[in-house]
């Protein structure tokens, strides 16, 4: 399992290098899209990288990571972006020179490029993802990274302030309201998973899945030609009603560190849409809403603010009584807000597969132990901690399978919840036919249920 | 294949999405490659004036409701072309389209963007010209002054729709051709000057991050 099951956007599509999933596996269900379903295979890439002939590529990568982490402690965001982009361009060029990459077909070559991006961003995450940067460098953080955090905070406050609003205040058609909250909640949960991944591609897929759930819903509510007029209000509603930590940080990170060639087409459209919607929420005021009854609204608003205040007091009390959980505790408290601890950003177990695979090749990135220890001490960042926990080294193949199983089960459970009246076996059949990609599954199940 | 980003702007009632759906539906192409139903569509197009040139449009729809206007910049950044749509049967519709044109010119700049002004719902005026509320001459003069492409179309009958995309396609393609000729003449580097030492294959002091 390498990242969330994706939709079928062209820019995210990676041909299967995995023979366990033969492409012909499709049930007799309504085909949503005839494009071949493709699977991204990080393990295959790591296997290629371990090939002795790939040694130059490995050395280039190692040298880049070394320089990035030792030349300067804190690069600005713009510098990071340029360095990483330049390196990708450079090393992607080198893939054409060395086996086994040299003789890969274009699809598998793309997989290798994705693999490199995932590898380096996994290693540099703690230095590039704004909430992690903040935790490492605190007040030294550069402007762009700091702005991400400020915007996250603004968004959170606005969301609290206006989370009570009704669909019609955003001009969402009445025909949608009945099932609206069910689907926006599901979409919000998919989006929230953006915090469970480090690779820009994986984060992108979470955005895509969240949007696809909404499109499936719109399509089956008679708004298939509604375009952005129908989509944007529902997306804004989703953001208001769901709790996605550090959304701006995540979106900006994805935009900065996803290789520009991969960031186009449908996925770029969705990323921009979510950015736009998040921006809308950040600037939300009475004037941006459709308010039929001013007085009633004011009343609702005041009542809601009291509720929010109460909740805040309550959670402040709770966190005060909580036992000190770690050395990061005081930095969290000092910001006096709901900034999650860094470990919350990479929750188990989704990125564990990546870590497990990486720990297998970690010897490739380790050389002289003395240099290692000094670097590693400052490096006790969430990602380092995470990979440290992998020291017992489970077999990656087994772990990957187990995580895939868990992820499939999660999708299945979500869908049972969404379609309680539908036959469980049928849901499972749909999931298997559609490879557990939640956006597509929702679409198919809606077709079947109507 | 060259790809171009085209953004759709206009009020919710002017039928901007219908124009695109009509274009995609009527397109006869051997490489059907469009994702229908969403707010994002892609469609390939063979240019009539340039033999053997096929381009791909990535069409980005925007929300037309006034309250969502502030989202538009997220959509039109890096666009190659914009379709600004108004409704010929709605008084005041052209004025709203003009404010989009102003915003685009102000925020994006002419040199990077091909703008096409489109009056939709022509079919409604065909039998009964009293329905028309926006004079074609007025729109045309405005478009000339602002150096915009201009068409009146009917998404319903399909009249004029194909021409818009042909014309935009030619224009963005020609711009791209001149541009790439110019950029090969003098290669420009990114302005930001940060470099690590060139990654090398014989670096003995490697580390684990």
UniProtKB/TrEMBL annotation, chain A:
This is LALA0S01e00892g1_1. Residues 7-21, 370-381 have a biased composition (Polar residues). Gene3D superfamilies: 1.10.246.120, DNA helicase RuvA subunit, C-terminal domain, VPS9 domain. One of its GO terms (biological process) is protein targeting to vacuole. Residues 149-290 form the VPS9 domain. Transmembrane segments: none annotated. GO terms for molecular function: guanyl-nucleotide exchange factor activity; small GTPase binding; ubiquitin binding. Residues 407-450 form the CUE domain. Residues 1-30, 312-349, 369-396 are annotated as: Disordered. Keywords: Ubl conjugation pathway. InterPro entries: CUE, DUF5601, UBA-like_sf, VPS9, Vps9-like, Vps9_CUE, VPS9_dom_sf. The keyword DNA repair does not apply. It comes from the Eukaryota. It holds the Pfam family DUF5601. The keyword Cell membrane does not apply. GO terms for cellular component: cytosol; early endosome; endocytic vesicle.
From TrEMBL, chain B:
It comes from the Eukaryota. Residues 181-209 are annotated as: Disordered. It is found in: Cell membrane. Its main location: membrane. SUPFAM superfamilies: P-loop containing nucleoside triphosphate hydrolases. Residues 198-209 have a biased composition (Polar residues). It holds the Pfam family Ras. One of its GO terms (molecular function) is GTPase activity. Keywords: Cell membrane, GTP-binding, Lipoprotein, Membrane, Nucleotide-binding, Prenylation, Protein transport, Transport. The keyword Nucleotide-binding applies. It is a lipid-anchor. GO terms for cellular component: cytosol; early endosome membrane; late endosome; plasma membrane. GO terms for biological process: endocytosis; endosomal vesicle fusion; Golgi to endosome transport; late endosome to vacuole transport via multivesicular body sorting pathway; multivesicular body assembly; protein localization to endosome; protein targeting to vacuole. Belongs to the small GTPase superfamily. Rab family. This is LALA0S10e04104g1_1. The lineage of its organism: Eukaryota, Fungi, Dikarya, Ascomycota, Saccharomycotina.
